[in-house]
Each structure stands twice: as structure tokens, then as C-alpha cells.
């Protein structure tokens, strides 16, 4: 429908996740109507993020240096490693302010239906980190879905014989919700994971 | 235009991420056959029915009919096998292969395939109960679903001339075991125990099936997988990830060898 550079821009934007043809067209016309300085800044940021951001050689988190900010931080303890699927999960855990250990990013979850097996994840790198000997406990924080549970099962089997404690994040009721609205799966997990208060 | 609501009980075969918080769910309905539906907001922790739409679950659903994709409006769990399956890695990989095979065997055309539905439901239940080794449950499912689809390998007569008997050669291209006269080039010669295992799995003779040695199980699973993929004319990706033997921890490589990579 469009020609030349505008058609290319609409096509490229349409390839982004969650952007359909209508949204791509709207963003393209927004870019066309923007100041040149704003567009240059956006182009620079896009180029910079691809050139400078890499993956931490230790944990697999996104980093601008060889190691990420968390792996370089000497105030964090080496005894706890929290295993997550994606770098964005680290942000979610960091927001809690409860965890002061290190992380390990797997790069996904085991899902044979999508062609992802254990060898496609950073499990080998995790085993190497654990063999170094500083870790006392591994917290598996994969998503609470079937793929995440299967990945946790696999990791527990692999790590268990090393003599380390392996724990899984608790599942249960969301804070602020009403018990009557909880589904039976979540409520069942909450019962399983109940704790003594006295 | 008034959109039509309909209800069915279905198996959740798999899910795909859609947008920020939605899923496309591949469903196998008892009366509606295979279909896909959008489940909105199920990836949010506040979702009312996200936990019930996990793979390998048997659910009772209400959907709004759509042109290509339906929309899930209500879900009640009938038997949610997902968690019990995911707690065991062998069960999980076998269930993934069963889901993918069910998708391949049943086109997305709303035509009911009751016998494949019942086989799939029975396989998920057997895996969740842990009554039999998961790789055997998978092979039994593959053999029986092929029989329902009309592609069962010939195991008690020659696939070419129909001569009855327990023949020694097996040819995937010919359609099963073949007699000495019909044996095409490239036929394999599995052990009699592997043939016996395939017959036992087809007929549901679990006593014989569970008594077979691992080597015969490996032979039989290789033949069953090859036979299935030959007739489907495409590979079943998750079959290559099936954990056939009990999972054992492997030693991590020493740091030096990884540095060299």
C-alpha cells in the first residue's frame, strides 16, 4: 500500500512482538510526524542496545560489561543461587527486596513441544557454578506452569546428589485477594505449602 | 451478530503465548474434535482459570465460537493431570509426545475423533497415576492411535502378502513385519522380544510388556516412532526428547573443557 522507506518501516515494525499491521502503521506515521532529533535519539538507542548489551558470562543476565551488576556486587552472598527462566524474572525478584544472593538465567524452560530440551538451556553452566563449591542452596524460581514445574523437577534431580539444598518458590494465595475467588489448584497448593504460625 | 456459545469437555494439548498475558490453547474436545481457543489474561497471577488450562488437563469448558479461534469464557477442571505429570520428568516428556501425536493425528476441523480422544485421555491418566513405565505408556498410545487411524503396523501377518505368522523382518515402508519372500531391501531384524512387546502393547497385555528387557523396549520404541513418522509424513519433534530410561545426574564438565569450547 505504501512505498519506499515508509513501507519498509511499516514492515519492520510489524515484525515486532505484539505489533499488528494497524499498530505498525500508526507508529510509522507517528515517527514520520516526529521531530528529527527525537527520531535520531530513538535510532541511536536501538543501535546502542544491540552493540553494548550482552549476556553476563556468569549468570546469563543482560549486562553492559562482561559480568552483570549483580554478579559484580561484592555485598551479595554466594551461598544462595536463584534460578530463573528469563532476565526479566530477575527484575521481578529484585523488586521484592527479599533476596540478596546471586542469580542464574536458564534462557527458558524445558518444552519438547517447542523443541527445547535440557541441552538448549544454560543447565550445564549452572552445574559448573555449583561445582565451584560456594553455593549452599539453589532456589528454583521457574514459572509456576507445567513447563516450569518440569524444569524444576529436572533440576532437582540433577542438583540433588551434589548435597545442596534445593528449594522451589511457594505457590498460593495472592495478597489482598478473597479466599472464595481462589481456584482449586492455587488453593490446593496453598494448603500444601501452609506454615505454622505458633 | 449474535455469537454462539457452546460447551464441551476437552483435553488441553498445549498452549502458546499470545500478546502480553493471553494464551492460545490447543484443545481436543470430546464432541468438538480438535480446536484452538484464546484464553484471555490467563498468564496473570490474578487469572480465574489460568491454572486449569495447563497442558495435559481434562477440563469442562464454555467457549464463544469464532471464525478461526474460539474464546474461552469458563473452565472447570475435571481431572487436572498436569502437575502429577510434571513432577516426573519421564512422564512429562512422554506426555509431550502424546500431545503432539494427538495434534498430528486429528486435523483442526471440529470433527469429533472419540476413539483418539479416549486413548489420549487414558494415556494422560495412566501417566499421572504412574502405574506403568512412561515410555511403555507412550508406545502403547502410539500403536493404538495408529490402529484407530488405520495405520497399525502388521505384527501377526506379513504386511505385503498377508501370510499369517510371527515373521522376523520389519519394514516401515511395507507397513510392518514381512515374510521371507516379501522382505524388501533395507528391512530390519528386531529381536522376537521386541515384536512380542509391540503385540502386548497393542493388545493391552501389561504383564508381558512390563516384563520385557530394556533392550527390547528400545528396539520397539525405535520401530514404533519410525512407523508413525513414516505414515504422518513428518517428524514428531518431541519424540526425540522422550526420556526412555530413568534420569540420572550427569557430572558437569570440568571448567577447562568448557573454556575450550
TrEMBL record, chain A:
Look up the record and give one Gene Ontology term from the biological process aspect.
Answer: DNA repair
Q: Where is the Toprim domain?
A: 79-174
Zinc finger (C4-type) in chain: 56-71
Record keywords, A-Z: DNA damage, DNA recombination, DNA repair, Metal-binding, Zinc, Zinc-finger
Q: Pfam families per the record?
A: RecR_C, RecR_HhH, RecR_ZnF, Toprim_4
Molecular function, one GO term: DNA binding
- According to its UniProt entry, what is the function of this protein? May play a role in DNA repair. It seems to be involved in an RecBC-independent recombinational process of DNA repair. It may act with RecF and RecO.
NCBIfam families linked to this entry: recR
Give the UniProt family note: Belongs to the RecR family.
> Could you identify this protein by its name?
Recombination protein RecR
Give the taxonomic lineage as stored in the record: Bacteria, Bacillati, Actinomycetota, Actinomycetes, Glycomycetales
Automatic annotation (TrEMBL), chain B:
Could you tell me the Gene Ontology terms of the biological process aspect for this record? DNA recombination; double-strand break repair
Which residue ranges does the record assign to the DNA replication/recombination mediator RecO N-terminal domain?
A: 5-80
Does the keyword section mention DNA repair? yes
Q: Which InterPro entries match?
A: ARFGAP/RecO, DNA_rep/recomb_RecO_N, NA-bd_OB-fold, RecO, RecO_C
Instruction: Give the record's keywords alphabetically.
Output: DNA damage, DNA recombination, DNA repair
A Gene Ontology term for the protein's cellular component: bacterial nucleoid
Residues in coiled coil: none
Domain of life where this protein originates: Bacteria
DNA damage keyword on record: yes
- List, alphabetically, the NCBIfam families matched: reco
HAMAP family of this UniProt entry?
Answer: RecO
- What family does this chain come from, according to its entry? Belongs to the RecO family.
**What is the role of this chain?**
Involved in DNA repair and RecF pathway recombination.
* Protein name in UniProt: DNA repair protein RecO
Q: Say which species the protein is native to.
A: Stackebrandtia albiflava
Amino acid at each position: 500500500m505504501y512505498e519506499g522507506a515508509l513501507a519498509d518501516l511499516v514492515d519492520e515494525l510489524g515484525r515486532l512482538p505484539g505489533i499488528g499491521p494497524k499498530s505498525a502503521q500508526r507508529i510509522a506515521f507517528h515517527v514520520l510526524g516526529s521531530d528529527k532529533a527525537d527520531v535520531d535519539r530513538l535510532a541511536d538507542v536501538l543501535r546502542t542496545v544491540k552493540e553494548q548489551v550482552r549476556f553476563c558470562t556468569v549468570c546469563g543476565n543482560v549486562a553492559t560489561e562482561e559480568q552483570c551488576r549483580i554478579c559484580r556486587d561484592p555485598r551479595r552472598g554466594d551461598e544462595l543461587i536463584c534460578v530463573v527462566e528469563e532476565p526479566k524474572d530477575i527484575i521481578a525478584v529484585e523488586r521484592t527486596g527479599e533476596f540478596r544472593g546471586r542469580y542464574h538465567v536458564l534462557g527458558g524452560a524445558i518444552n519438547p513441544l517447542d523443541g527445547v530440551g535440557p541441552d538448549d538451556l544454560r543447565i550445564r553452566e549452572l552445574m559448573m557454578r555449583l561445582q565451584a563449591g560456594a553455593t549452599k542452596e539453589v532456589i528454583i524460581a521457574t514459572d509456576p506452569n507445567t513447563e516450569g514445574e518440569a524444569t524444576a523437577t529436572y533440576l532437582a534431580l540433577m542438583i540433588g546428589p551434589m548435597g545442596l539444598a534445593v528449594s522451589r518458590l511457594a505457590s498460593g494465595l495472592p495478597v489482598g485477594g478473597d479466599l472464595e475467588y481462589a481456584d482449586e489448584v492455587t488453593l490446593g497448593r496453598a494448603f500444601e505449602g501452609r506454615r505454622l504460625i505458633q | 451478530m449474535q455469537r454462539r456459545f457452546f460447551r464441551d469437555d476437552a483435553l488441553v494439548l498445549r498452549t502458546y503465548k499470545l500478546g502480553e498475558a493471553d494464551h492460545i490453547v490447543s484443545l481436543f474436545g470430546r464432541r468438538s474434535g480438535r480446536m484452538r481457543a484464546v484464553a484471555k489474561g490467563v498468564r496473570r497471577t490474578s487469572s480465574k482459570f489460568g491454572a486449569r488450562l495447563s497442558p495435559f488437563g481434562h477440563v469442562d469448558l464454555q467457549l464463544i465460537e469464532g471464525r478461526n479461534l474460539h474464546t474461552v469464557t469458563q473452565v472447570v477442571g475435571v481431572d487436572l493431570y498436569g502437575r502429577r505429570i510434571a513432577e516426573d520428568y519421564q512422564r512429562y516428556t512422554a506426555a509431550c509426545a502424546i500431545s503432539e501425536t494427538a495434534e498430528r493425528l486429528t486435523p483442526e476441523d471440529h470433527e469429533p475423533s472419540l476413539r483418539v480422544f479416549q486413548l489420549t485421555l487414558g494415556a494422560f491418566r495412566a501417566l499421572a497415576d504412574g502405574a506403568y513405565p512412561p515410555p511403555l505408556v507412550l508406545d502403547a498410545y502410539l500403536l493404538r492411535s495408529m490402529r484407530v487411524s488405520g495405520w497399525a503396523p502388521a505384527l501377526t501377518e506379513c504386511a505385503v502378502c498377508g501370510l499369517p505368522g510371527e515373521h522376523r523382518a520389519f519394514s516401515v515402508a511395507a507397513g510392518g513385519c514381512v515374510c521371507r519372500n516379501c522382505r524388501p531391501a533395507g528391512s530390519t531384524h528386531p529381536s522376537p522380544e521386541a515384536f512380542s512387546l509391540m503385540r502386548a502393547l497393542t493388545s493391552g497385555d501389561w504383564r508381558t510388556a512390563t516384563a520385557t528387557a530394556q533392550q527390547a523396549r528400545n528396539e520397539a520404541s525405535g520401530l514404533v516412532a519410525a512407523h508413525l513418522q513414516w505414515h504422518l509424513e513428518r517428524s514428531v519433534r518431541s519424540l526425540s526428547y522422550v526420556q526412555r530410561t530413568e534420569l540420572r545426574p550427569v557430572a558437569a564438565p570440568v571448567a577447562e573443557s568448557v573454556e575450550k569450547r
